[in-house]
Amino acid sequence: MTFSDALKCKECGKLYPLEAMHVCKFCFGPLEVSYDYDEISSSISKESIASGPLSIWRYRDLLPVSGSDYVDLGAGFTPLVKAERLGRYLGLKNLWIKNDTLNLTGSFKDRAVSVALSKAKELGLKVAACASTGNLANSVAAHAAAAQMESYVFIPTDLEAVKVITTTVYGRNVIAIDGNYDDVNRLCAEITSEEPDWAFANVNVRSYYSEGSKTLAFEVAEQLGWRVPDHVVVPIGSGSQLTKIHKGFTELYRVGLIDSEPQVRVFGCPTTGVFPSSKRLCTRTRLREACEAVDDSKVAGYRKPSGWSVCIGCGSCYEGCCSGSL
């Protein structure tokens, strides 16, 4: 069973059924999975988690998938390594590094895609797809092969071939689009309206896809003896992983797995080529400096016109798109 009960708009609060959709029809705000935390707290325990698989699915009560027919390639429960020498260099006594390169396709995307395609199968969707500049493409192709689903991966035409070698191993439909990542993503959004049986990981099943990232927070807390760190530094692109890790720590408190409300501060670190002079801090309640100017640099298929802004709150590239609040 699943304890998720609806999709909820983060902007206006409107509720929707658990279907393949990710944007509010009323205000166009992003949709997020809502859970019955009271029911979860009566079901979940540290002991039940410890007896589960060594993957993200040990936290199945906090994920939006019914049953046990998961698309599971063993994503998650990667090592949390104490970096003693680096810690001494930085003046930190307790510095830990979460090594998600040990997931099957080499990145945290395997967490998100495992959840997205598991939900897609539950919803009866037949084809797995995505817009990508590398890591997501590899993960979607691998998980689609395991689920015996056809896969289509759309990439910018000038993407380096080495970034999608793994994709071509698992799936044969890699389609290069003449444009940057934003162009590819817009095309995929259009295709979802024409192909209702397709599950685009980062479009129409994005609400479920993004839930996979919060398992990083679950694992870190469990591996630290059910303690929450003071600070977490997260590599980010759109910023979704940053907000979901914060959500993950909060959920542990809401279901009684940690004793006190987490005071963790989560720092998002994008590459300077995409977000020059970035200094963003996620506190308990909001993102500071959510929107910053982006030059017309090019990194991994991303190109933004000079003077535009990228909002980490929603991942859009338009000025004044949202407040960036969590």
Automatic annotation (TrEMBL):
- The 4Fe-4S ferredoxin-type domain covers 302-326
One biological process term in Gene Ontology: L-threonine catabolic process
Task: Supply one GO molecular-function term.
Answer: L-serine ammonia-lyase activity
Q: Does the keyword ATP-binding apply?
A: no
Q: Does the keyword Metal-binding apply?
A: no
Source species, domain of life: Bacteria
The PTM N6-(pyridoxal phosphate)lysine maps to K109
Q: In which pathway does it act?
A: Amino-acid biosynthesis; L-threonine biosynthesis; L-threonine from L-aspartate: step 5/5
The reaction(s) annotated as catalysed by this protein in its Swiss-Prot or TrEMBL entry are: O-phospho-L-homoserine + H2O = L-threonine + phosphate
The first-level EC class reads lyase
Q: Gene3D superfamilies attached here?
A: 3.40.50.1100
Q: Name one Pfam family in it.
A: PALP
State its Enzyme Commission number(s).
4.2.3.1
Q: Which InterPro entries match?
A: 4Fe4S_Fe-S-bd, NinF, Ser/Thr_Dehydratase, Ser/Thr_deHydtase_PyrdxlP-BS, Thr_synthase-like, TrpB-like_PALP, TrpB-like_PALP_sf
Q: What UniProt keywords are attached to this protein's entry?
A: Amino-acid biosynthesis, Lyase, Pyridoxal phosphate, Threonine biosynthesis
PANTHER family from the xrefs?
A: L-THREONINE DEHYDRATASE CATABOLIC TDCB, THREONINE DEHYDRATASE, MITOCHONDRIAL-RELATED
Function recorded in the entry? Catalyzes the gamma-elimination of phosphate from L-phosphohomoserine and the beta-addition of water to produce L-threonine.
Family that this chain belongs to:
Belongs to the threonine synthase family.
The protein's name is Threonine synthase
